[in-house]
Amino acid sequence: MAIGHLLAATALKTVGIVGSTLWIIPLILASLTFINYNQLDPEAPIINQKTLYTEYDFVVVGGGSAGAVVASRLSEIPDWKVLLLEAGGDENEISDVPSLAAYLQLSKLDWAYKTEYTGRACLGMKNGQCNWPRGKVLGGSSVLNYMLYVRGHRNDYDHWEALEDNRNPYLAKTPYHGTGGLLTVQESPWRSPLVVAFVEAGMENGYPNRDINGADQAGFMIAQGTIRRGQRCSTAKAFLRPVKLRKNIHTALNAHVTKVLINPTNMRAYGVEFFRNGHRQVVMARKEVILAAGAINTPQILMLSGIGPQKELHKHNIPVLRNLPVGRNLQDHVGMGGLTFRIDRPVSIVQDRFQPFPMTMQYILNEKGPMTTLGGVEGLAFVDTKYGNRSWPDIQFHMAPASVNSDAGARVRKVLGLTDELYNAVYKPIANQDVYTIMPLLLRPRSRGWVKLRSKNPFDAPIINANYFHHPFDIKILVEGAKIAVKLSEAKSFKKFGSRVHLIPFPNCEKFPFGSDKYWECHIRTISMTIYHPVGTCKMGPDWDEEAVVDPRLRVYGIAGLRVIDASIMPTIPSGNTNAPTIMVGEKGADLVKEDWLTNYSK
Predict the structure, then answer these.
(1) Given 276, 501, 513, 564, which residue has the most CB atoms within 10 angstroms?
(2) pLDDT tens figures, 319-365
(3) Alpha helices, DSSP H only, in 369-452?
(4) How far, CA to CA in Å, does 81 sit from each of 73, 242, 266, 285?
(5) Mean pLDDT of 407-420
(6) pLDDT tens-digit profile of 247-299?
(7) Residues at the annotated binding site for FAD?
């Protein structure tokens, strides 16, 4: 993941441009992006509606990976008036650049959440807390993420509908991909030779080079992502910009929703309260309020509205309208960060090696070069440990041609929140040297966390407890993933680069023999990385399921006119990156709404 921070720092450190003149590169990006919009991309930025109606048919809360899809699809019915409320602003020229994904973290586009200290994970981060980036911007986390397009395993779903526009010919012609859709999926036009070695290493270890979004998942491939002509293709760009001129859809930015308005007599949602530019506003919903604010903000809004665990609401003196297990069942893909392999050939991403101005111009003028890389992740793989099986892998790998040391500590350690002690001891000695990383991540965690209110103040960040490694089996599987990653690094394809594991031990793990199971466990607990995939906090399930918040049509139990359509409804986390499945939830959820309100609606 480090490559994104690295290329950001490189691009924004253009030769001789420092201090007060740093604005030149964003200005160039803005100017030429504007030209590209008019010449190549007809979907210019959306219209931020200043004056709103007092009532809409549907009010969609949250313009992220699911919400943008829902609002767009509902506005296909010309008789329906749709309002989309987004707490953040619009995308910018920097967020369009794939390689700068990590640079957006801790910016104004990020809610910048942190997890609670547990003592079991994130021990190498300041205060033992993991940073949890979440998109506070139109397009949501599809604007901050690494754009990786992974559907998950067929065993994860009965049926989740997908719509895409795949522009890799060798995949587009298969039964598992399509063309002409709104969401564009491609490989990055640039890659290092290390990702080829990664795929070959997988083949040496008995795994095929295959489309992991096809019939079978186990295998290795060069990563695909939601990019278009070298730029990020967020859900805002894919689903909202093309429909911005429709008369029946309004989008309000910087509109922070604080409460769903519910009539306690008939238990029906009839509108929402939100703050915009410091002013409280209310808007009514004739048919439904649809929450699509994500696995953190959706449960927060529900609880602030009186829907949630009775004990939790009483603690904050919030009247209980419906006692439901909101905020529970939190799941995330936790990964082992910082696993670094050194090499002797200059083929990785090292900040001091790149010439920033030529690299930036190559991207702007030709839509090629290192700045098109998917946040730095070049390779993806799905493997099985001794606890899993080939038919349903339990470990995913992200491979990147850089690591924590590649920018000499300028940015990566800050965004990860690493302590100075850890960075200086382990990564500073190899600053700016050639390396690559393979990050194992746990696909189906058994541990469950939760989201709770910090207070009844809607502007206070909620309490997030990821509860990583509460179940002892989770750490055991990741340790096996670490050992497989090391074995991959020893393959012939990597050995030609002089590949070997970085041997400086973590200071807090020195009591264990380096490379032992106990050592890898300590490493994993020290740099425990979120893969930015929180789901499950408003679980979908049948009415007899005591953990369910919404029914199979995504309607909140006991509250009429209120639906949740986002990653929070997932009962279990999909086996892979969650952006594509969340977009699928948006597509399917919009269909359900149409089916419920249009008797003659047909797919």
Answers:
(1) 564
(2) 999 999 999 999 999 999 999 999 999 999 887 777 677 888 888 88
(3) 412-416, 420-426
(4) 12, 17, 24, 10
(5) 86
(6) 999 999 999 999 999 999 999 999 999 999 999 999 999 999 999 999 999 99
(7) 137, 257
Token look-up 């709104």 returns 182
pLDDT of residue 28: 57
- pLDDT band at 34; cut points 50, 70, 90: low
Domains, the chain, in order of start with CATH, read: 2-35+189-222+334-530 (3.30.560.10), 50-91+236-327+535-597 (3.50.50.60)
SS3 readout for 551-603: CCCCEECCCECEEECCHHHCCCCCCCCCHHHHHHHHHHHHHHHHHHHCCCCCC
| Orientation angle between helical segments 24-39 and 356-366, nearest 10 degrees | 10
Which residues have CB under 8 Å from 354's CB, separation 6+?
Answer: 7, 10, 370
Residue length of the chain? 603
Phi then psi for 520, rounded to 5 degrees?
-65, -35
What is the spatial distance between Cα 227 and Cα 281, in angstroms, rounded to a whole number? 36
Question: How far is 74 from 53, CA to CA, in rounded Å?
Answer: 17
Our CA dihedral for 509, 512, 513, 515, rounded to 10 degrees, sits at -60
Q: Are 129 and 115 in contact (CB under 8 A)?
A: yes
Q: Which two tokens stand for residue 137?
A: 């911007």
| Active-site residue, selected from the candidate residues 5, 177, 398, 533 | 533
Extract the annotated binding site. 137, 257
DSSP calls for 346-370: S-S--GGGS-HHHHHHHHHHHS-SG
Smallest CA-to-CA distance from 184 within 238, 257, 132, 220 is with 238
In this predicted structure, what is the pLDDT of residue 99?
Answer: 79
Phi (first) and psi of residue 431, to 5 degrees = -55, 135
Residue 49 one-letter amino acid: Q
329: its two tokens: 């069942």
What is the pLDDT confidence band of residue 603, given thresholds at 50, 70 and 90? very low
Task: With CA atoms as reference, report the closest residue to 184 among 583, 576, 591.
Answer: 583
Judge contact between 360 and 26, C-beta under 8 A: no
DSSP H/E element including 272: strand 268-276
Question: Which amino acid belongs to residue 559?
Answer: I
Helix (H, G, I), strand (E, B) or coil at 148: strand
* Average pLDDT over every residue of 234-253: 93
> Helices (DSSP H) in 107-251: which residue ranges?
169-172, 193-204, 235
* Nearest C-alpha neighbor of 532 from the set 106, 144, 214, 268: 144
Give the CB-side neighbour count of residue 382, counting CA atoms within 13 A.
Answer: 27
Is the pLDDT at 18 greater than 90, yes or no?
A: no
Q: Does the pLDDT value for residue 595 go beyond 60?
A: yes
Q: What is the mean pLDDT of the chain?
A: 88
Q: Catalytic site residue 153?
A: no
The CA-based angle 142-147-149, given to 5 degrees, is: 110
pLDDT at 204 > cutoff 90: yes
Q: What is the pLDDT averaged over residues 387-413?
A: 89
333 is written with which tokens? Answer: 């893909």
Pairing of strands 279-291, 55-61: parallel
Compute how many other C-beta atoms are within 10 angstroms of the C-beta atom of residue 463: 17
Strand partners, 155: none
